[in-house]
Amino acid sequence: MSLDEAGYIPSAPYDEGYLTVSSIHTLFYQQYGKKDGKPVIFLHGGPGAGTSPESTIFFNPSIYRIILLDQRGSGKSTPHAEIRENTTAHLVADIEALRTHLAIPKWHMAFGGSWGSTLALAYAQEHPSRVGSLVLRGIFCIRQRELDWSKSAEGPTALLFPDVYQTFLDYLQYLPEEERANPYKAYHRLLTEPPVDEESRKRQLAAGRAWNAFELATGSLRPSPDDMEEKMEDDEWVLAHARLEVHYFVNAGFLEEGELLRKDRLDRIRHIPTTIVQGRYDIVCPPQTAWDLHKALPESRLFFIQTAGHSAREPGTQEKLVEVCDEYGKMDLA
C-alpha cells in the first residue's frame, strides 16, 4: 500500500483485456490492486473521457480489486469515438456484462464522478442487488436545467467566464445564425457528421478542441495548464470526449427528464449506502443537483467541499473521496 497526499500511488494492472459486447463495440478493461479484494467499478466521466492508471488513486490496493472500464467509444475501447449503439442503456448493460465476465457476484462499490455519477445511479437503479455501495461525485442527472447551467448564454458559466464562453461561441461564427442560437446542436452537427476528406477531419478536430477548451477552463478552481495542454494535444481524446459528450447531451442521456431522481427509481436503491461528494463551486455540474439527490434520497450522506470546483483532483474533493472509500473498504457489504 502506497498513500501520499495525492491518494494511493498507481501501480501496474495485474490483468487487462477486451470484452465484445455487440457486433460493433469491444470494451477495454483493466484490473488493479488485490486479486481477491473487494471489487469496485470505476465509472469515468465525459462521456468519452476514458480511464488511466490515475483513476485508481482513490482506492486502497491492499483492500480493493479495482476495475477500470473504458466505456463505448472511449479510451482503448473500439471503435474509437463511435456513437452508434451508444446510449445509457447500452452502457448499463455493459457494466453488467463485465461483472458477469469477471465472475464478480456483486460490486462492493460503484464509484462515479460527473457523467460517471449518472451511470452509477442508472446501473444501481437497474441492478440494485448487484451494488454494495455508491460513491458519487459532481452529480449529473442530465436534466435540461443542468445542461443550461454550463452552456447557456444565461447560465452562470457564461456570466462567470464571459471571455471563455465567447471563445466557445466564436468557433461557430461561420455557421448560419439559426444554428449558432443553439450551441449544443451546432457542435453536435460539427462533431458527428462523418468527415469526407482530410480538411473536414481537421475542422472536426478543431471543433472538438473548442468544445474541450471550454470545459477544461471551467472544470477546476485552479486549472492546470500542463494538464490542459497534454489533453488538447491528444487527438483521440479530443474527438472522443467532445463527440460523445455532445451526442449524449443533445439526447438528454437517452433518459426521461428527471428520471434518475424519480421516487420509484430511488426506492430501488434506498438500502445501498450512498455518499455524495460535491464541489461547492462546481461550474460544470450544478451543486443543486447534488442537493436534489440528497433530499430525494435522505438515506445518503452529502459532503459539500467548500474549496472545490468540478474536478475530482481538487485537493479537498480528492481527500474526501479517499476517506470515504477507505471507510467503505472496512465494511462488509456483501
Automatic annotation (TrEMBL):
CC annotations in GO: cytoplasm
Top-level EC class: hydrolase
Predominant localisation class: cytoplasm
Alphabetic keyword roster: Aminopeptidase, Cytoplasm, Hydrolase, Protease
SUPFAM superfamilies: alpha/beta-Hydrolases
Compartments (UniProt record): Cytoplasm
MF (Gene Ontology): aminopeptidase activity
This protein's record includes keyword Hydrolase: yes
Domain (AB hydrolase-1): residue spans on this chain: 38-312
Top-level taxon of origin: Eukaryota
Active site: S114 (nucleophile), D282, H310 (proton donor)
Catalytic reaction(s) noted: Release of N-terminal proline from a peptide
One protein family per Pfam: Abhydrolase_1
Biological process annotations from GO: proteolysis
Catalytic activity, EC: 3.4.11.5
Family matches, as NCBIfam families: pro_imino_pep_1
Similarity annotation: Belongs to the peptidase S33 family.
PANTHER family referenced in this protein's UniProt entry, alphabetically: PROLINE IMINOPEPTIDASE (PTHR43722:SF1)
Protein name from the UniProt record: Proline iminopeptidase
The organism's taxonomic lineage, starting at the top: Eukaryota, Fungi, Dikarya, Ascomycota, Pezizomycotina
